Known about the structure:
Low-confidence stretches: none
CATH class of the largest domain: Alpha Beta
CATH topology of the largest domain: Glutamine Phosphoribosylpyrophosphate, subunit 1, domain 1
Helix content: 25-40%
CATH architecture of the largest domain: 4-Layer Sandwich
Bound molecules: fructose -6-phosphate
Strand order of the largest sheet: 3-2-4-1-10-9-11-15
Largest sheet: 8 strands, antiparallel
Number of strands: 25
Structural class: alpha/beta
Radius of gyration: 26 Å
Mean pLDDT: 92
Distance between the termini: 10 Å
Amino acid sequence: MCGIVALIGSREAAPQLLEGLRQLEYRGYDSAGIATVEADGSPGAPGRLHCLRAEGKLVNLTARWEAEGAPGHCGIGHTRWATHGKPEERNAHPHLDGSGRLAVVQNGIIENHRTLREELQAEGVTFLSDTDTEVIPHLVARRLRELGAEGHAADAALLLRAVQEVLPLLHGAYALAVVWADVPGALVVARRQAPLLIGLGEGEFLCASDTPALAGFTRTILPLEDGEVALLTPLGIELYNAAGARVQRTPSLLSGTEHVADKRSFRHFMLKEIHEQPETAALWVARHLPEGALVALPLDEAFYEGVEEIEILACGTSRHAAQVGAYLLEQLAGIPTNVFYASEFRYAPPPLVPGMLTIGVTQSGETADTLAALAMEQERRLGHGDPAYAPKLLGITNRPESSLSRMVPHLLDIGAGIEVGVAATKTFLGQLLAFYGLALAFAERRLAAGAPVGRDRQGLETLVAELRALPQQLQQLVDDHDRRCTELAHLFADTQDVIFLGRGINYPIAMEGALKLKEISYIHAEGYPAGEMKHGPIALLDARVPVVSIAMPGMVFDKVLSNAQEAKARDAQLIGVAPAGPDTALFDTLLPVPEVDELLSPLLTVIPMQLLSYHIAAHRGLDVDQPRNLAKSVTVE
Ligand code: F6R
């Protein structure tokens, strides 16, 4: 949540800061701000701090900068997703100390901010915002005074020391950047459990919460480790660990185009990303379904050994992918599997059992709830002492350079390329595919060991053959439903509630359909297991409540059709996501999906869900890529 940038070098900082923020706007977009330090010209002389902030989208801040300017070769910037305090200009970052000469941007939450605020207020400090962040500039300024900054020539080492000595006072997770007008050529950044990386340019450094901010600046990066603090000057980087010891680390290179966000000719990133799914699938097939083998994943043999149960921790859309994954791991690979909301798991974990594989699923690799739940599970398992209870952690993510990746020993990179639209689409498909790969890999090994699994060898090979055909099927579906859903969207002009129904492996897809619609169109939607309707929710139905029903041939086909009939009897408008044919003639509108093995059907049924939500929201003229109150990377608990 929130994105931060910081630049130091020899060119004007503001344009690069604004460009970096533009690339990070998906992390939060309710207000934004920058602060730059303008040097006086003579060496060692104090400079001037310029701070600009604006409520709303980044365009408002850019307009202010165009009108007022913010000179200087060093600066920090922030795009906000409100946690503490309403999205108003006074709560926008950067926040300043009492003298207005020291500025801070922060991404995260300072959990003990109330105590710190009271302490500072008792010392006479006046606060201008409701944010947790504002305590930081006041604390750093106080420490600078205690270190004797006034009256001595200020230098970068003093600023570094003051920040280092304030950090232990802060509880919570954060990434922050600090500039001080008294030292125009220095920038201090730090992180604890929130992402921050430094991009190394030519004689300049750009720090950011995420790689897209570095597009066009550099491919050479130095991700900060947990607890690290860095002092940046135009001459170089000094890196320190949490204990204050100097650290040397070799920078790494960003590969591919994963940090380039380009809308091409599409109206929205979300639509572009829906259209990229055939390519996501084709890449996955090429990487993981090689000829002559069932499935190839980048996990060593020891990984599969001793796994008796699986628990999956995730949030939102990732949790829906995990639910499909759990279905596959149980029904195909025969391994008992449970899915948890990461935010719930941490406070009510199940009793420890041996042989547990814990999977964290997060496209961003930065979701605080998921990371905290994984960390807690790791800690309590390590504390047990019996090797049978030792943690075995696997991460599934689209961001191999993320915090998740640094936390888990085993990783499946879904390789979907950067996703900018806040509503997850191609990363959801990538997560599903990761679970198909994992379930097949476990099933193959358990079959060879004589353990009970859902299909024989021939059955597994048939599934893999069908998976190979997926990219082509997706291409047809995306093209076809893009058109159909454009036409259908006008039917939803006045709709206020929609019900999504599915059963078995398609129940999570009904949940995902409802979530997509809610988050981008602001229409109230619920996803239910179709059989559960008659136990209460059916009371909601009348002619004004459309029902989207996923009915794919297989074990529960007839049951779902009967449930759809029940809805029709209550005058509901029925939209079917199902193969065309006499069985599905009961639907008022059909979004046809080809008949495939029921186990593979979620890979196809999700496409009309995404396109329907997209076109309804676009038809309503809403900001599809940046829906209200949301952010792509939820780095607060
Ligand atoms: C919905 C959506 C969110 C995320 C959730 C978890 O479209 O994007 O529900 O799925 O915030 O995010 P990650 O996958 O980054 O952990």
